[in-house]
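Researcher: Good morning. I'm working through a list of sequences from a screen, and I'd like to move beyond sequence-only analysis. For each chain I'm collecting a predicted structure so we can compare shapes side by side. This is the next one on the list. No need for commentary yet; just the structure.
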Amino acid sequence: GTVRTEIEEEIGQELFTQLWRLTRGRRVRKVRYSVRDGNLTWVVDRFTDRRLYLAELELDAEDQVFDLPKWLRDIVVADVTDDPQYTNLALAR
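Model: Good morning. Structure tokens for this chain:
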């Protein structure tokens, strides 16, 4: 959905190595770009193992109004916000 809880936590190299092994065969490969548009920052992921780009915008409130910038409006194919096929878990290979 449009509202998600994200927990970001810094971990040490040893824990990373242990956890990384558990993801073998289920990893997302992408390059992430941050694109400023006025007061907003779009995050654009370019997947390196398929022809797929996803753009994401983190808002301050669920009802915050925004417009797609022209550079994105001209190339967007679909809004996949509620599509479970586009979660990181589903996209992991």
